[in-house]
């Protein structure tokens, strides 16, 4: 039955919508061209934020490798991973999920993130998304991070608490802000949900977001969880913005 449906409705590339033949895309749902334009982070990477790093041949454990940003900016979370670089098709897909009314992308993107986050997964861990302010949620209709985190939690058999965190005030967009301005913009804006905080007490939490640049929003979220008594916090994002090579 599935074979017949595939003949009638062949799979389409997540990026460009062209038919995907299955060869060369490694089952990722991308055509060969979009696959080439997607920079998956599969090699050496920062153990804090997931940014790709050059392989120095030392063979050091990835969790001990730290990028320049994470050396200069305090990170309240323990470890981090990212599925891809925020560029090319990766950027296109994140923006389509976030602003393009494409919630149908969430299952495939969550699958990519699940593989990237595998080293962070622990039994009994809680999965939670970075929250949206209610007014922004009303305008956007869904929290893209929550869509991804729900699929990831289901795939990993872990508890998903989509409202573990709350946005106490609406913040302006982070684009085109300096690093210090990004942190100031979200300071005090995120808190643990008092109706859910007890579920995270003493338990490891994996925070999920769509994209990170400075890490300011993830930091505010992690600090809120730790202040509420959670166990260690790790982070996993679909895409990590990096400086041009």
UniProtKB/TrEMBL annotation:
This is ComF family protein. It comes from the Bacteria. Residues 4-71 form the Double zinc ribbon domain. Pfam families: DZR_2. InterPro entries: ComF/GntX_DNA_util-trans, DZR_2.
């Amino acid at each position: 039955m599935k074979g017949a449906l595939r003949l009638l409705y062949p799979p389409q590339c997540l990026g460009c919508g062209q038919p995907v033949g299955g060869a060369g895309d490694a089952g990722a749902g991308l055509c060969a061209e979009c696959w080439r334009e997607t920079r998956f982070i599969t090699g050496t990477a920062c153990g804090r934020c997931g940014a790709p790093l050059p392989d120095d041949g030392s063979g050091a454990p990835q969790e001990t490798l730290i990028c320049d940003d994470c050396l200069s900016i305090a990170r309240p979370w323990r470890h981090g991973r990212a599925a891809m670089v925020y560029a090319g098709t990766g950027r296109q897909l994140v923006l389509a999920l976030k602003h393009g009314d494409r919630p149908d992308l969430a299952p495939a993107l969550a699958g990519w993130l699940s593989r990237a986050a595998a080293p962070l997964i622990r039994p009994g861990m809680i999965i939670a998304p970075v929250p949206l302010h209610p007014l922004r949620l009303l305008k956007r209709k869904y929290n893209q991070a929550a869509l991804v985190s729900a699929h990831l939690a289901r795939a990993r058999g872990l508890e998903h608490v989509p409202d573990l965190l709350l946005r106490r005030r609406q913040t302006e967009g982070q684009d085109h802000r300096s690093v210090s301005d990004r942190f100031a913009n979200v300071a005090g804006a995120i808190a643990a949900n008092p109706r859910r905080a007890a579920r995270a007490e003493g338990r490891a939490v994996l925070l999920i977001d769509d994209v990170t640049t400075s890490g300011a929003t993830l930091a505010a979220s992690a600090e809120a969880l730790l202040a509420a008594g959670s166990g260690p916090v790790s982070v996993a994002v679909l895409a990590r913005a990096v400086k041009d090579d």
